[in-house]
Write a structure and sequence with these properties.
The protein has helices spanning 2-18, 29-36, 51-54, 61-68, 72-86, 100-112, 117-124, 128-143, 146-149, 155-169, 229-235, 277-303, 319-335; strands at 174-184, 203-210, 216-224, 252-254, 265-266. The chain is of the alpha/beta class. Helix 1 (2-18) packs antiparallel against helix 8, helix 5 crosses helix 6 and helix 6 (100-112) crosses helix 8 (128-143).
Length: 345
């Protein structure tokens, strides 16, 4: 699958990032003072002290979830899952390694809020370059679990979704729903016009497929915002899945009018004012059933609200891994029944 190829690219790209400074080639202010002395007479930048130790660990479970968008036991599950990888320290790291808990809290906070890096650094008492490297180290660690937590359903799982959708909506043989969503980004350094979408802002296209539980079963991100949904579908390799092996018992996905009708995708009739009663009824049932992908998008962006805002990264080759890492965390929360209210976006 394409995940393997993408994963190899991520390891190299993030490793280079971890061994260098951030995108502006700036170093931590504390490190400059430590190495060269405070020649300008400035003091160390004042920041919040011991936020993790004195505040986070004393939060109630309800407050913790409102801040970090997941329950405390889900966070502890992630500590056990990612801890062995996050404990590894590169020879390029500085004086004292950041505790695993702090690395993960900082990264989840970055994903879960639209805070700037300056605000994150002040809250967690780290330099900008340290925060930058920490986030991408956690993203890389999460991405390693992509084949485990974002995977195509088995025949039994497909049957469960199909039965649920038929009972609830009367639409037979539904395996899931597919749709695209735009992730707002800063203006890239190259080919800026290609990233302007139909809504007029720079973005990356993200295509998601979900099941009836709002779990993401396929994710693809990386095409420029101007690329049409139908072309993203072809480039995502999802079209190659349209075989009985992946769509057993004549199952199919539900897609909106941006997609063309195919054996594995059912789309609504185009309403030119000439639809008969049966076609109108079909469109209404199709729209109701397809809402599960809209709810999935709302849950993903409602939990990880940085995806609602303009992402602060200019490396368009790395942004897809950040987005997919959010999708993996979304699925982990869904699988652990760690739910949030579906926000109105």
């Amino acid at each position: 699958m394409e995940y393997t190829i993408i994963g190899i690219g991520l390891v190299g790209a993030v490793q280079n990032l971890l061994e260098s400074s951030d995108e502006d080639d700036s170093s931590d202010d504390e490190d400059l003072i430590y190495c060269f002395g405070n020649r300008a007479g400035q003091g160390i930048i004042p920041r919040t002290q011991d936020y993790v130790e004195n505040t986070v660990f004393r939060m109630s479970d309800e407050t913790f979830k409102s801040h970090f968008r997941m329950r405390r036991d889900t966070f502890e599950f992630l500590i056990n899952l990612l801890g062995p990888d996050l404990q590894k320290q590169s020879v390029h790291f500085g004086r004292h390694p950041i505790p695993v808990e702090k690395q993960l809290l900082l990264s989840i906070w970055t994903m879960a809020t639209p805070d700037s890096y300056r605000s994150v650094c002040d809250r967690f008492n780290v330099g900008k370059a340290t925060a930058w490297r920490t986030v991408w180290k956690v993203v890389k660690s999460i991405y390693n679990f992509l084949p485990i937590y974002v995977k195509w359903p088995t025949r039994e799982e497909a049957s469960i979704t199909s039965n649920h959708m038929y009972r609830k909506y009367g639409f037979p043989n539904v395996l899931g729903a597919v749709d695209g969503t735009h992730i707002r980004i800063a203006q890239p350094k190259e080919h800026q016009a290609s990233y302007i979408n139909r809504k007029g802002f720079h973005s990356l296209q993200t295509q998601l497929v979900c099941d009836h539980k709002f779990k993401i079963i396929h994710a693809y991100c990386g095409q420029a915002g101007s690329v049409h949904d139908a072309r993203v579908f072809r480039l995502s390799n999802l079209q190659n899945y349209c075989t009985p092996e992946f769509f057993p018992d004549d199952t199919h996905l539900l897609g909106d009018k941006a997609y063309s009708i195919q054996p594995c995708i059912m789309v609504p009739y185009r309403n030119n004012g000439n639809l008969n009663e049966d076609s109108v009824r079909y469109n209404k049932i199709h729209s109701s059933a397809r809402m599960m992908i809209e709810r999935t998008n709302a849950l993903l962006k409602g939990r990880f609200r940085s995806l609602l805002d303009k992402l602060p990264f200019k490396r368009t080759d790395l942004i897809p891994y950040y987005v997919i890492a959010c999708c993996i965390l979304h699925n982990i929360c869904i699988m652990r029944d760690d739910l949030i209210d579906i926000p109105f976006l």
